[in-house]
Design goal:
Layout lengths: L2 E6 L6 H11 L4 E7 L1 H6 L8 H9 L6 E5 L5 H7 L4 E5 L14 E5 L7 H16 L1
Parallel strand pairs: 1-2, 1-4, 2-3, 4-5
Bound molecules: [cytidine-5'-phosphate] glycerylphosphoric acid ester (C2G).
[cytidine-5'-phosphate] glycerylphosphoric acid ester binds next to strand 1, helix 1 and strand 4.
Length: about 140
């Protein structure tokens, strides 16, 4: 069984995230997602709309995801790869090269990001639409 892992906040899950998860799953048989905790989001300077538990419920509904574990810090990747016997580590290519140090433990693949979609833009767009409704 080929085991794949990826990491992220996955806030306001959108088709760019799902596109990443789909392609990551296609690289193996079992996909683990290390989901950034609320506390780690603060370290990443990311404010997510949904809490960890809410993001986990949404992510868990995705057919490509087999297991969700918390991502609590930058340093856990090596331990995770050993603990879960990971064959392939996958990230979007906005992270190109950043995790090449993991190549001594497993295959490292950066997949092209889906253009023109990100959680922040979705949130801003919804805010603007909401403002128009209230005018
Ligand atoms: N992604 C993508 N296309 C988009 C948006 C996101 O392929 N339009 C990918 C990102 O490249 C990432 C994953 O979806 O691989 C999750 O994106 P984020 O939730 O923004 O994750 P990030 O904040 O980059 O966290 O330790 C790694 C970090 O936790 C990564």
């Amino acid at each position: 069984m080929k085991r794949v892992i990826t990491y992220g906040t996955f806030d306001v899950l959108h088709y760019g995230h799902v596109n990443l998860l789909k392609r990551a799953k296609e690289l193996g048989d079992y996909l683990i997602v290390a989901l950034s905790s609320d506390e780690f989001n603060i370290i990443k300077n990311k404010k997510s709309y949904y809490t960890y538990e809410q993001r986990k419920i949404i992510l868990d509904s995705c057919r490509y995801v087999d297991l969700i574990i918390p991502e609590n810090n930058w340093e856990q990747k090596e331990t995770d790869i050993k603990k879960y016997k990971i064959n392939t580590f996958v990230m979007g290519d906005d992270w190109q090269g950043k995790f090449d140090f993991l190549k001594k433990y497993c295959e490292v693949i950066y997949l092209p990001r889906t253009p023109d979609i990100c959680s922040t833009d979705v949130k801003i767009h919804l805010l603007q639409e909401n403002k128009k409704l209230l005018e």
